[in-house]
Write a structure and sequence with these properties.
Blueprint lengths: L6 E5 L7 H8 L3 E4 L13 E6 L2 E6 L23 H13 L5 H13 L6 H15 L5 E4 L10 H10 L4 E5 L8 H6 L3 E5 L19 H7 L8 H7 L5
Helix pairs in contact: 2-3
Length: 241
């Protein structure tokens, strides 16, 4: 009898994620958007980098951090008193207006930011994630952990989420080697795959290649994206411009 595999990846919300985030999604059948854990300051949850003529520039969404240690990610509010949307759009425009796909992509990004005003950070990140995956022609299933009836902490939480979806394999980031309780996954017959990500080299503006930029950098500069499963190869495998 053939065993049906169900591969699950799990990650916290991320603003303008880097390519490794999408690589993890491509490796899975179902991706769980983990919005039921604590917000971490100075993480990639509310910020990421774009490339400029002088190097990397952080784009950060201001959030209300009062009592944030007592809140889940889904409860973290955006500080709308700051004009961050205009600032981010201006930075994206200034630094990518010479990119090959600027005229195609920037109007979509502008609409993405202006079509709706968000109160909560996780809602914005989730809707933007759907947009970026659409641009990559990726139709993987996405679920928010807040919609699943699960509990637990650390490895127990991940295992319970996997069990809810009858997962046979869990895709972890490579840092998971330092904290996952692998014996517990084994007891539940859940195989663990560690993501060994090799960042591709693609054509960029502004000189020397900088890895680990936001998905914006990749999509602005990459013209010849392959169709279908070729999209994964653009993200997963090293190449030269």
């Amino acid at each position: 009898m053939e065993i049906i595999k169900n591969i699950v990846a799990i990650h916290q919300p991320a603003y303008l994620p880097w390519l490794g985030y999408f690589d993890k999604i491509f490796r899975s059948d179902v991706f769980i958007f983990l919005d039921t854990v604590q917000f971490e300051k100075n993480s990639f949850t509310n910020r990421n980098k774009i490339k400029t003529p002088t190097g990397a520039l952080w784009l950060t969404i201001p959030v209300k951090i009062r009592n944030h240690t007592n809140k889940l990610l889904k409860e973290i509010e955006i500080d709308s008193t700051q004009k961050w949307v205009e600032k981010h759009l201006k930075s994206i425009h200034a630094n990518y207006k010479k990119a090959k796909r600027f005229n195609i992509l920037f109007p979509k990004i502008e609409n993405l930011y202006k079509v709706k005003q968000y109160d909560y950070l996780s809602d914005l990140c989730f809707d933007q994630l759907i947009f970026w995956l659409s641009e990559l022609n990726c139709n993987k299933k996405l679920l928010r952990s807040s919609t699943l009836n699960t509990n637990g902490h650390k490895s127990d939480l991940l295992i319970n989420l996997c069990k809810t979806l009858h997962a046979t394999k869990y895709v972890s980031g490579t840092l998971g080697k330092n904290y996952l309780e692998l014996n517990k996954f084994k007891e539940e017959n859940i195989e663990v795959e560690f993501q060994e990500y090799e960042h591709p080299v693609y054509e960029q503006l502004w000189g020397t290649f900088l890895p680990n930029m936001s998905i914006i950098d990749f999509l602005m500069n990459t013209v010849n994206l392959k169709n279908g499963d070729g999209y994964e190869k653009n993200i997963n495998y090293s190449s030269t411009p």
